[in-house]
Design brief:
Shape of chain A: globular
Number of strands of chain A: 12
Shape of chain B: globular
Number of helices of chain A: 0
Largest sheet of chain B: 7 strands, mixed
Radius of gyration of chain B: 13 Å
Structural class of chain B: mainly beta
Helix content of chain A: under 10%
Distance between the termini of chain B: 36 Å
Structural class of chain A: mainly beta
Strand content of chain A: over 45%
Order of helices and strands of chain B: EEEEEEEEEEE
Distance between the termini of chain A: 41 Å
Largest sheet of chain A: 6 strands, mixed
Number of helices of chain B: 0
Oligomer: heterodimer
């Protein structure tokens, strides 16, 4: 069975600082990996996704993520955080883009001024 | 990306009543729709998968007689919480998929059962 672990429940960073959110997955085959962001009381917005090819993927809002098969990781990064990035971030894995997704527990990002 | 709407965005109902939540795919035909449930400060848990014109497939532990899903058209799926109880209070999110394409999520419906 597939599973996703986001080790950090909460992260606080200062505005302008760099950010890395961790995601580890367990999956038997080549996974489809996603990062979503959720603002309070809102649905999910896709930040980026990895299916195949270049292991460093660029997303919206200046985010990027790197797929490392040897570490079963898909960490999300941003070089300079903005106050508007404060939200809940979810990593997810699926067997393909249109099939059911398994979500990690989420990481709540807080941004200090 | 595609636009998915949910109605209502918030609903409060009394224990024992039924509540219907609609999920609409506004600009493409969704062959598959997913219903997720999110507890406060928790992650999303898949409840069921529905394909247009066929019965929904429920995840283990989800009562199909309590959470009725109807996917009658390629643009509309409904989730009916029957005989709601306070423990059914949650944030319900739908997503749509067109074959193997990316999933698009609705804005969610917050259900509160008093």
């Amino acid at each position: 069975a597939q599973s996703v672990t986001q080790p950090d429940i909460h992260i606080t960073v200062s505005e302008g600082a760099s950010l890395e959110l961790r995601c580890n997955y367990s999956y038997g085959a080549t996974p489809y990996l996603f990062w979503y962001v959720q603002s309070p009381g809102q649905g999910l917005q896709l930040l980026l996704k990895y299916f195949s090819g270049d292991t460093l993927v660029q997303g919206i809002k200046g985010f990027e993520a790197e797929f490392k098969r040897s570490q079963s990781s898909f960490n999300l990064r941003k070089p300079s955080v903005h106050w508007s990035d404060a939200a809940e971030y979810f990593c997810a894995v699926g067997e393909d883009a249109g099939n059911m997704l398994t979500f990690g527990g989420g990481t709540r990002l807080m941004v200090k001024p | 990306g595609a636009v998915v709407s949910q109605h209502p965005s918030r609903v409060i109902c009394k224990s024992g009543t039924s509540v219907k939540i609609e999920c609409r795919s506004l600009d493409f035909q969704a062959t598959t729709m997913f219903w997720y449930r999110q507890f406060p400060k928790k992650s999303l848990m898949l409840m069921a998968t529905s394909n247009e014109g066929s019965k929904a497939t429920y995840e283990q532990g989800v009562e199909k007689d309590k959470f009725l899903i109807n996917h009658a058209s390629l643009t509309l799926s409904t989730l009916t919480v029957t005989s709601a109880h306070p423990e059914d209070s949650s944030f319900y999110i739908c997503s749509t998929s067109q074959g193997r394409e990316e999933q698009y999520f609705g804005p969610g419906t917050r259900l509160t059962v008093t």
